[in-house]
Amino acid sequence: GAMAEERALAMVTCTAPVNIAVIKYWGKRDNDLILPINSSLSVTLHQDQLKTTTTAAASRDFAEDRLWLNGEEADVGHPRLQACLREVRRLARKRRGGSAEDVAPLNLSYKIHIATENNFPTAAGLASSAAGYACLVSALARLYGVEGELSEVARRGSGSACRSMLGGFVQWQRGERPDGRDSLAQQVAPETHWPELRVLVLVVSGEKKQVGSTAGMQTSVDTSPLLKHRAEAVVPERLALMMRHIHERDFEGFGQLTMKDSNQFHATCLDTFPPIFYLNDLSRQIIALAHRFNAHHGRTKVAYTFDAGPNAVIFTLADTVAEFVEVVRRSFPPATNGDQFVRGLPVDSASLPEELLTAVVTEPVPGAVRYILHTKPGPGPQLLDDPSQHLLGADGLPRRCT
């Protein structure tokens, strides 16, 4: 039969999650393909609290490719964005080698409009590039009717984005091939595997970090002997151990290893020349607080990890959340009257025993923590079926002007 007429305007909206690495990725062996020097493992966070939403539209009426970030027009020519677009179109071309489709395929020469926004402050040092590229790739793949292995495409946007293509507990396998075809994300366990696990993000400062991840990790690869030792000798063993702790839901093992790996990552930053400091005084106070809290209880009840920035991410179990949040509130009393100090999932109030206060809360630093976000592990990217949720209107322009 004759080809159906090509669709004049096609539009798709997806959401994607943030992920937090518990075995860190730091250092590339190939900068263009974004191939890591070591495998990594992360926890995907729930999109009710942290997510990126992206709408991608294609139309024969669009004069040029355009991009909007949080309502502001941005440079669509960014090399990593272009790499993702190129890869998705390549897969679409490959897939079309003769298969009869129900829906007429989208003309690959149509220009596209992309709008993306985060439901969390981009500057807060939360992994917005991981969620952003995972979301972009999910939306583009849906737009062009591409299925299958997409973590490799997302990796071309931002290394850690490949891990945001899956929910729950995710391993990014380093891979061996020079072309990167085996450098992929794999789910270790779904988000339902460990229902009691909770995550507290302690947002300490919305400042932009001094050294970006891309530049920082390159300097580390070039100058840090510790990083080389970490990638070759330390990480492979830790990765196997971490997967076992997750499978067994062993919080003691999981928590200790998470803290050790975070500390070693920051040690490699310090071992970089000139040194890189992502942690600040407040980060170090939170680390000390966590250790005092665990020592008081005689076991690992909370575990911290820090990415390339000063915000603490605390893993804990549901039964510890209320008490630890109160400890944080006493240690870093909110500047205002405490409204919106705790965001996300509800937190019960807790009264602290006197001996815990004495042992754990030493010298309060008012206003140091801006807020605590309470969340938990969650699923991978989602397709939004409701057309009212599109960020672009029928004219292909942003709906809400900010």
What is the C-level CATH assignment of the largest domain?
A: Alpha Beta
Strand content: 15-25%
Tell how many strands the DSSP assignment holds. 17
Radius of gyration: 22 Å
What does the largest sheet look like? 6 strands, mixed
Order of strands, main sheet, comes to: 8-7-9-6-1-17
List keywords for this structure.
2 domains, alpha+beta, Ribosomal Protein S5, domain 2, nucleotide-binding, sterol metabolism, six-stranded mixed sheet, EC 4.1.1.33, 21% strand, five-stranded mixed sheet, lyase, 402 residues, GHMP_kinase_C_sf, Alpha-Beta Plaits
Protein described:
Belongs to the diphosphomevalonate decarboxylase family. Residues 199-383 form the Mvd1 C-terminal domain. InterPro entries: GHMP_kinase_C_sf, Mev_decarb, Mev_diP_decarb, MVD-like_N, Mvd1_C, Ribosomal_Su5_D2-typ_SF, Ribsml_uS5_D2-typ_fold_subgr. It is an enzyme of class 4 (lyase). Helix 1 (79-95) packs parallel to helix 2 (128-143) and helix 5 (225-247) packs antiparallel against helix 6 (251-271). The protein folds into two domains: 9-191 and 381-389, 2-Layer Sandwich (Ribosomal Protein S5, domain 2), CATH 3.30.230.10; 197-375, GHMP kinase, C-terminal domain (Alpha-Beta Plaits), CATH 3.30.70. The longest helix is centred in the middle third of the chain and has 23 residues, at 225-247. It has helices at 79-95, 128-143, 151-155, 213-223, 225-247, 251-271, 281-297, 321-331, 354-360; strands at 9-17, 19-23, 28-30, 35-36, 40-44, 51-59, 66-69, 72-74, 111-118, 169-172, 185-189, 197-203, 302-305, 312-317, 342-344, 371-375, 382-383. The chain is an alpha+beta fold.
